[in-house]
Write a structure and sequence with these properties.
- By secondary structure, the chain is of the alpha+beta class.
- It is built from 15 helices and 25 strands.
- The strands form 5 sheets. Strands 2, 20, 21, 22, 23, 24 and 25 form a 7-stranded antiparallel beta sheet that branches.
- β20 and β21 form a beta hairpin.
- α4 runs parallel beside α6.
- About 50% of the residues are buried.
Length: about 525
């Protein structure tokens, strides 16, 4: 008798996935689950059900999902983010077409077949639909779940098992998803489950599923970092975990992440790490250090993924994860400079926590760790007001909120200058604000022209774009050095002014690349820095 598992919605924080500083618009949502019976599920979702038989066709390198709906429909909407769905290697048999949210057809249908191929290039940069791993795949089941349908996903082969993150050693032939309760607010969530016959390992508090090709020394480094972080954070936050965390380690040889790696975490205690072999083959010591930091960062998300958190303030949880990952090892001034230069939510939230430490130290022997312990005792629901409220209760100075927000980027120039003087920092820090404004302008241009997550890598002589499925001449990985004859390095204020001047009009910006090529890009909507 297979276990039946209901997915229940909770948010998630994707993690960093490169050794280079990557600015990216994050999709901040996820799912987790708890046990339930099929009888209870039948009472939800207005009685509409979908049964999905999932099978793997190795000769075609494709997963096949055969759907049977309880009643005919002319449209099916999936819970997976619409942009990600379009960017994934989905195809559908028959006369049914893929639209922005799912599937549609001229005539009602109650059966259809989806095909899903692994995407080695990871063009769907955040939460790919399928990740090959050993003798199976890590599958983002939000791409399989029909909105407003109670969906049962059944393994077609008797050798196929679901490994259910958060549920210890539970393995199952089926997943049962109560879409009415789990997806009341559609926000492009992600829930990973492993389908295959791969053996699992349980050394210490984590469970591991390790794909072929990952060297033993790297796995050992990850295990050490994960176990020590879990123990350390549990002690610092006076709060352990309610489930068994699982780490999935896989290898990809696609050119999309050549020489690098990607990873993410969902609050069902799942961490996924995808490596390109070149990442760890070239420098073992650097690989260990980078992965150690990443794992420590992601483990903190088991605590601070808050369902009430404002997604417009990703620095609050991403930067806090960086703060915990590097406790005692980070310097204040370089972290603030990195934030004000790049607007990265990681650096900005990290800077906010470090400034918070400095200000709290004026009031006594307290730190942001104490603040977060108080905040997370009420997890998973918290927001900015909760953070500052607990800080005030612990004795934070009157201007604590204003100064911490200035460190995180949202503050005005006058407050930034006051912060610099208050903490006796380098006055030239203020100059980095112009660069941050330029980056905000360029993200606006990318979002106006590209699908899915967008961003760029910061280089010494410009920026390398990180965006896909773009129009207007934009090319993924283009190395841009100037816009409208203004250098991205020497004239950030002029670049921002050009974007402000031309966005919302019929004018086009001229991008120039390192190799001397140029192309024009329309801005779309108006931009105000």
């Amino acid at each position: 008798m297979p276990h039946e598992v209901t997915l229940v919605r909770r948010p998630v924080n994707p993690g960093k996935g490169s050794s280079v500083e990557l600015l990216i618009v994050l999709l901040l949502a996820s799912l987790t689950f708890g046990a339930a019976s099929a009888a209870a599920i039948a009472q939800q979702g207005q009685g509409r059900t979908a049964t999905v038989e999932l099978s793997w066709l190795p000769e075609q390198d494709v997963w096949v999902a055969d759907y049977r709906l309880s009643s005919p429909t002319s449209e099916v909407v999936f819970e997976g983010n619409a942009s990600s769905l379009r960017l994934s290697n989905w195809s559908v048999d028959g006369e049914i077409e893929v639209n922005e949210d799912g599937l549609e057809a001229a005539n009602p249908f109650d059966r259809f077949r989806l095909r899903l191929r692994p995407d080695d290039d990871e063009y769907n940069r955040i939460y790919p639909a399928v990740i090959p791993l050993g003798r199976g795949s890590l599958i983002n089941t939000s791409f399989l779940i029909a909105h407003d349908y109670d969906t049962t996903i059944v393994a077609a082969s008797p050798d196929l098992r679901w490994i259910l993150p958060g549920h210890g050693d539970v393995e199952s032939r089926s997943l049962v998803i109560d879409s009415s309760a789990a997806f009341e607010e559609r926000d492009g969530g992600a829930f990973y489950a492993y389908a295959g016959d791969h053996a699992t390992e349980r050394p210490g508090p984590f469970r591991y599923v390790v794909g072929d090709g990952i060297p033993t020394w790297l796995v050992d480094a990850i295990r050490t970092a994960a176990s020590s972080a879990l123990e350390e954070y549990s002690a610092k936050l006076d709060r352990g975990l309610d489930g068994t965390p699982t780490l999935f380690l896989s290898e990809t040889r696609g050119p999309g992440i050549a020489g690098s790696w990607r990873g993410d975490v969902s609050s069902d205690f799942t961490v996924s790490l995808r490596f390109h072999p070149g990442f760890y083959e070239e420098n073992r010591d650097a690989a260990i250090e980078q992965v150690r930091y990443f794992v420590r960062h992601e483990v903190l998300h088991f605590w601070n993924s808050g369902s009430k958190i404002n997604s417009s303030d990703p620095w609050l949880h991403e930067g806090t994860a960086d703060y915990f990952a590097s406790l005692g090892d980070a310097e204040l001034e370089p972290t603030i400079r990195s934030c004000w230069r790049s607007s990265s939510p990681y650096a900005c939230g990290h800077a906010a926590n470090l400034v918070g430490d400095e200000l709290l130290a004026e009031s006594g022997d307290i730190s942001m760790t104490d603040v977060w312990r108080a905040v997370l005792m009420d997890a998973p629901e918290y927001d900015l007001d909760d953070v500052f409220g607990h800080a005030a209760a612990l004795g934070a100075p009157a201007d604590f909120r204003e100064m911490v927000l200035a460190a995180a980027g949202p503050g005005d120039d006058e407050t930034r200058r006051a912060l610099i003087e208050r903490l006796a920092l380098d006055p030239t820090l203020a100059e980095a604000v112009e660069v941050a404004r330029m980056h905000g302008a360029l993200r606006h241009v990318l979002e106006s022209n590209c699908l899915g997550a967008v961003g760029f890598w910061i280089l010494d002589d410009g920026l390398r774009l990180d965006a896909t499925w773009c129009k207007g001449g934009l090319v993924d990985r283009a190395h841009v050095v100037a816009i409208d004859d203004f250098s991205l390095v020497d004239s950030p204020a002029d670049v921002t002014a050009a974007v402000t001047r031309k966005c919302g009009t019929e004018g086009a910006l001229r991008f120039e690349t390192l190799d001397g090529q140029s192309f024009e890009v329309s801005c779309g909507e108006a931009f105000a820095p």
